Structure formats: C-alpha cells, structure tokens
Amino acid sequence: EPKTKQKNAFIKEFRNSLVRLRTFIATSTKANDDDIDFCIYTMLGFNQKEFSLLFNVEQYRTLKHRLKSKMPESMYNMIFNTENNYDIYNN
Predict the structure, then answer these.
(1) What is the distance between the terminal CA atoms of the chain, rounded to a whole angstrom?
(2) Secondary structure E strands in the chain
(3) Mutual orientation of helices 57-68 and 33-43 as an angle, nearest 10°?
C-alpha cells in the first residue's frame, strides 16, 4: 500500500494529466476535483479495492450515489456503465 506522501504525489500528477477530460467533466457537472478523479478512475477501470488504496473506502460508496445528482443522467450512465446495452469500449 502506498504511503501518504506517495499517494499525494500520485494524485497531484494525475490531476495535472487528462486536462481535457477533467475540463469536460467539470464544465458538464457540478463535480469537484475529488468527484472528477473518481469519474476518471472509474472510466479507467479502477475497482473499489484499487480506489480505496488512494481514498477512504467509505468515500467510494457515497461518491457514486452523490454524483448521480450532480450530472446529467447520460453522462452518469456513460461513466458508470449503468445502461445494460451500453459498452464504453464498443460504442
């Protein structure tokens, strides 16, 4: 498990990358930086265990629920792949 200093360095570097995607999510939603990180990690295929290495496990369970009210339904479905017929890799 990474140490706090390593986690913070990774998060800082991560936030400096994928700027266009971060900007798109930020301008399309009411999401803050942590919310945007969560969306991008999810889109990259991070699971709960991997996400919890960087963030509090409790956050994982509440972030997804909270984001549903912060963004358009179509964006939520795309990020969290909740539509049965939607496959982010083939559509």
Answers:
(1) 35
(2) none
(3) 100
Does 88 fall in a domain?
no
In-domain check, residue 89: no
Contact 54, 7 (CB under 8 A): yes
pTM score: 0.72
Residue 90 placed within a domain:
no
User: How many Å apart are CA 68 and CA 72, to the nearest integer?
Assistant: 8
Q: Which of 72, 8, 10, 80 is nearest to 42 (CA)?
A: 80
Q: How many domains does the chain have?
A: 1
Q: Note the pLDDT tens digit of each residue in 61-79.
A: 678 888 989 999 999 999 9
Could you list the residue range(s) of the whole structural domain that residue 8 is in? 4-80
Closest CA to 60 of 80, 84, 74, 81: 80
